[in-house]
C-alpha cells in the first residue's frame, strides 16, 4: 500500500495534479507516519503553493532533505534567519544538508537579501566552482557587479569539471541499478524503491524565481528517501535542489490567473505508464529485479544519447514512473519500462530483445541475466560515446561564455560592447525572447529608444507570454510618447499575468503618460505589494512623487529601492535630482557621483553632475564632465549647450560660438541657443547680430522667464555692460 501511494503521488506531481497529490500524500502519511513520507508531503505542499503548510510540518525535522525543504518554505515566507539556520551545517546532527551548488546558491540569496554582500558573493562563487553550469549564480554576481569574466567562469578549464560531474552521475545510476536488482526481500522492495526514486536530485539554474517572487510555490522533486534506521551516509548527501521545468513551446492562453503557480523549467516530458495490477507476494518477488533495474537505468540511458544537447542544469534525471506488478511479464510492460530517454541504437535492440524474451520467461534468474546483459551493453555504448559528450560540454560552455560576457557587459552598462557580443550568437539563440529583451534593454540604456522599441517588439512576437524586462519596454514607449502602443502592451500583459509586478509598472507608465499621476502612483505601489524586492517599481513611484512635487515621499521611495538593490543607479540619479531642485548642491553632487560610479557611460548622469559642479562654481571640473558627456553621446544637445555656457563663463567666446553654431544646425528651434549667441555678440560689440539673434529667440516662443531675460538684454543692448550670466 505504501509503495502504491508513493507511486501515485509522484505520478500526480509529474502530471501537475497538485491537489490530488496533496490528498493522496496526506493519506500516505496518516497510514505510514515517517519523516521520509513527511518530506514527500512537504513537496506536495510546496508544489501546491502552500509553503506555510510545508513550514509547519517540517519544523524541527533533522534529516538533510527535510531541512532543505524547510529552508525552501522559509524563503517563500521571507523567513531568512530560519532558512539560513536550516541550510548551514550543524555539528550535533548526523545528517547535514549537503554543500551542493543549490544550497550554496540559496545561502547566497539569503545573504543578499539580508544585506551581507560579501558573504553573498562568496557563496555565489562557490556555487559556480561546484557547478560551472549554474547560470543563476553568475547572473546574481553580474547584478552585484562582482562577476568575473565569462571566459574564466565558463572557460575550457571548467570542461573537465562538468564532464566529471556529468559522467559521475551516470556511473552512479548504473551502480544503483546493479545493486538494486539483487534484492529479494519484500520490505526492501518497498523501501529501496522509495530511496531510489527520491535520491536523484536535480540542480536547477533558475532558483532565483523561488527566492525573489512570492507568487508561486517551487516545484520540487527528488526528495531523499532514506530507510527508517539510516544515519548520515554519503549516498544520501547528493545535492537536493528545486527543479525548474522547461516552458512549453506553446504560448499560454490569455487567461487572468488568480493564483500564479510558477512552473519549473526542467520536465514537461511525456511519461508512459502501464496499468498496474498487484498480485500475490511470490509473483511480486519474481519481477522485483526488473523494477529496480528500470529505475536505475533511466538516467544513464538518456546520457548515452550523444546527439542530445546538454541542459544547463546538471543532474536532471528521469525517474522511474511506476511499480509494475502483474501475474506475467508482458512485452507491453517491459517496453513501457524503457520508453523514456534517447538510447543508443545497440541499446534499443537489446531492449526489444529483452521485451520479446521476457514474456516467455518464468524464472527470476533468466530475467536477471538479461538485465545484466542490457546493462553491460548500455555501459559500453556510454563509454564509447564519451568523446561526443565532451564535445557537447565544450559547445555548451562556449555558448555560456558568449551569453555570460554579454550579460556582464550589460550589468556594467557597457551596452555597446554587450550588443557586439550578442551579435556573435547564432540566429537560433539571438532570435529568442530573452536575448532580444536584453538587446532592447541595452538600447534603452543608450537612450536609443527607437531601436529599443524594435528589439522589444520582436521579443514580444517571439515570446508573447514572457514578461521579463517588459517594464523597461513600457518605459521605452513612455519616452517615445507612444500612447496607443503602451495601452496595448498593458492590456496584453494583464491577459498574460495580472499579478506580475511588470504588468503594474506598464499600467502605471500608461497612466503617467496621460498625466494621471495619482492612478500611476497606485499602480506602481500595487507592483511593490506584489513583489517588495522589485527595485524598479520603487524607483518609478519616486519619479511620480517628484512630478507631484512631494519630495519627501520621493526620497523614501528612492531609498527603499537602493535598500533592495544598491546598484540601481536610477534611484541615485533621482535623489540627486531632488537635491538639485532644492539647491542642496553638495548632496546632489554626492548622489550623482554614486550614480556615475555605477553607470560611468551615461551622458545624462554626466550632464547633471556637470550642472551641479557648475552651480558649485567649479567650472573647470564641470567643463571636463560636459566634454566626457559629449564624447559618450554626441547626439545629446544638453552637454554641448552647457559646455558653451561654461566657455563663456571662462571667457572663451569664440569656442562657445563654434559649439552654438553646430547646435543651431542640429536643433534649430531652441530659443536658448539664439539667446546665448546674442549675448556673446553683445559682449563682442556686434550689436546688429546680437539684436538679430535676440529677435529669433523671441520668435521661438520661449518660457515667460526667458522672455523677460531676453527683453531685458535687448533694452541694455547699446549700453556696454557685462553679459547676463543667467543667459
UniProtKB/TrEMBL annotation:
This is Cdc23 domain-containing protein. Belongs to the APC3/CDC27 family. Transmembrane segments: none annotated. InterPro entries: TPR-like_helical_dom_sf (IPR011990), TPR_rpt (IPR019734). TPR repeats lie at residues 101-134, 501-534, 569-602, 603-636, 671-704. It comes from the Eukaryota. It is found in: Nucleus. One of its GO terms (biological process) is protein ubiquitination. GO terms for cellular component: anaphase-promoting complex; cytoplasm. Keywords: Cell cycle, Cell division, Mitosis, Nucleus, Repeat, TPR repeat. SUPFAM superfamilies: TPR-like.
Amino acid at each position: 500500500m505504501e509503495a502504491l501511494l508513493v507511486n501515485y503521488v509522484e505520478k500526480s506531481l509529474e502530471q501537475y495534479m497538485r491537489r490530488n497529490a496533496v490528498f493522496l500524500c496526506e493519506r500516505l502519511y496518516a497510514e505510514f507516519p515517517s519523516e521520509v513520507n513527511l518530506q514527500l508531503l512537504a513537496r506536495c505542499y510546496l508544489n501546491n503553493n502552500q509553503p506555510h503548510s510545508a513550514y509547519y510540518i517540517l519544523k524541527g525535522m533533522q534529516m538533510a532533505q527535510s531541512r532543505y525543504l524547510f529552508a525552501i518554505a522559509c524563503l517563500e515566507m521571507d523567513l531568512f534567519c530560519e532558512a539560513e539556520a536550516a541550510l548551514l551545517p550543524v555539528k550535533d546532527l548526523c545528517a547535514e544538508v549537503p554543500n551542493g551548488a543549490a544550497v550554496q546558491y540559496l545561502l547566497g540569496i539569503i545573504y543578499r537579501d539580508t544585506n551581507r554582500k560579501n558573504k553573498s558573493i562568496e557563496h555565489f562563487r562557490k556555487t559556480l566552482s561546484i557547478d560551472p553550469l549554474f547560470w543563476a549564480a553568475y547572473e546574481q554576481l553580474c547584478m552585484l557587479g562582482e562577476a568575473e569574466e565569462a571566459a574564466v567562469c565558463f572557460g575550457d578549464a571548467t570542461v573537465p569539471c562538468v564532464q566529471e560531474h556529468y559522467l559521475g552521475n551516470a556511473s552512479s545510476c548504473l551502480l544503483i541499478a546493479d545493486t538494486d536488482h539483487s534484492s529479494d526481500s519484500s520490505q526492501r522492495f518497498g523501501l529501496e524503491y522509495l530511496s531510489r526514486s527520491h535520491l536523484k536530485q536535480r540542480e536547477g539554474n533558475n532558483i532565483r524565481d523561488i527566492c525573489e517572487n512570492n507568487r508561486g510555490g517551487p516545484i520540487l522533486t527528488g526528495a531523499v528517501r532514506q530507510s527508517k534506521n539510516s544515519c548520515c551516509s554519503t549516498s544520501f548527501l547528493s545535492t537536493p535542489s528545486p527543479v525548474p521545468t522547461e516552458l512549453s513551446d506553446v504560448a499560454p492562453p490569455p487567461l487572468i490567473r488568480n493564483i500564479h503557480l510558477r512552473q519549473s523549467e526542467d520536465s514537461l516530458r511525456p511519461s508512459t505508464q502501464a496499468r498496474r495490477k498487484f498480485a500475490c507476494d511470490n509473483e511480486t518477488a519474481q519481477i522485483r529485479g526488473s523494477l529496480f533495474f528500470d529505475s536505475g537505468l533511466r538516467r544513464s540511458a538518456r546520457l548515452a544519447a550523444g546527439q542530445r544537447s546538454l541542459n544547463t542544469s546538471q543532474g536532471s534525471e528521469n525517474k522511474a514512473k511506476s511499480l509494475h506488478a502483474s501475474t506475467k511479464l508482458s512485452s507491453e510492460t517491459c517496453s513501457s519500462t524503457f520508453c523514456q530517454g534517447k538510447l543508443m541504437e545497440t541499446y534499443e535492440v537489446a531492449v526489444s530483445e529483452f521485451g520479446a524474451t521476457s514474456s516467455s520467461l518464468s524464472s527470476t534468474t533468466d530475467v536477471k541475466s538479461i538485465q545484466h546483459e542490457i546493462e553491460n551493453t548500455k555501459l559500453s555504448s556510454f563509454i564509447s560515446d564519451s568523446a561526443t559528450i565532451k564535445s557537447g560540454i565544450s559547445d555548451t560552455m562556449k555558448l555560456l561564455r558568449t551569453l555570460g560576457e554579454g550579460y556582464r557587459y550589460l550589468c556594467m552598462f557597457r551596452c555597446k560592447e554587450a550588443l557586439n557580443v550578442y551579435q556573435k550568437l547564432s540566429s537560433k539563440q539571438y532570435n529568442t525572447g530573452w536575448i532580444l529583451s536584453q538587446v532592447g534593454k541595452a538600447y534603452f540604456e543608450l537612450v536609443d529608444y527607437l531601436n529599443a522599441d524594435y528589439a522589444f517588439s520582436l521579443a514580444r512576437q517571439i515570446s508573447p507570454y514572457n514578461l521579463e524586462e517588459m517594464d523597461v519596454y513600457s518605459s521605452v514607449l513612455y519616452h517615445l510618447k507612444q500612447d496607443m502602443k503602451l495601452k496595448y502592451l498593458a492590456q496584453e500583459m494583464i491577459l498574460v499575468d495580472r499579478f506580475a509586478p511588470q504588468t503594474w509598472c506598464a499600467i502605471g507608465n500608461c497612466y503617467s503618460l496621460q498625466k494621471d499621476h495619482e492612478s500611476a502612483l497606485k499602480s506602481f505601489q500595487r507592483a511593490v505589494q506584489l513583489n517588495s524586492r522589485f527595485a524598479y517599481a520603487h524607483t518609478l513611484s519616486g519619479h511620480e512623487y517628484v512630478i507631484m512635487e512631494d519630495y519627501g515621499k520621493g526620497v523614501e521611495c528612492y531609498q527603499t529601492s537602493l535598500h533592495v538593490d544598491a546598484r540601481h543607479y536610477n534611484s541615485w540619479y533621482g535623489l540627486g535630482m531632488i537635491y538639485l531642485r532644492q539647491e542642496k548642491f553638495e548632496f546632489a553632487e554626492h548622489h550623482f557621483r554614486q550614480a556615475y560610479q555605477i553607470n560611468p557611460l551615461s551622458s545624462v548622469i554626466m550632464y547633471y553632475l556637470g550642472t551641479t559642479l557648475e552651480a558649485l562654481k567649479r567650472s573647470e571640473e564641470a567643463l571636463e564632465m560636459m566634454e566626457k558627456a559629449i564624447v559618450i553621446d554626441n547626439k545629446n544637445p544638453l552637454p554641448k549647450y552647457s559646455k558653451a555656457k561654461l566657455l563663456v563663463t571662462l571667457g572663451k567666446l569664440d569656442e562657445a560660438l563654434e559649439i552654438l553654431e553646430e547646435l543651431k544646425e542640429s536643433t534649430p528651434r531652441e530659443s536658448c541657443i539664439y539667446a546665448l549667441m546674442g549675448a556673446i555678440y553683445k559682449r563682442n560689440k556686434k550689436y546688429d547680430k546680437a539684436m538679430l539673434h535676440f529677435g529669433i529667440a523671441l520668435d521661438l516662443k520661449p518660457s515667460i522667464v526667458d522672455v523677460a531675460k531676453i527683453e531685458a538684454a535687448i533694452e541694455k543692448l547699446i549700453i556696454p555692460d557685462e553679459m547676463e550670466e543667467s543667459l
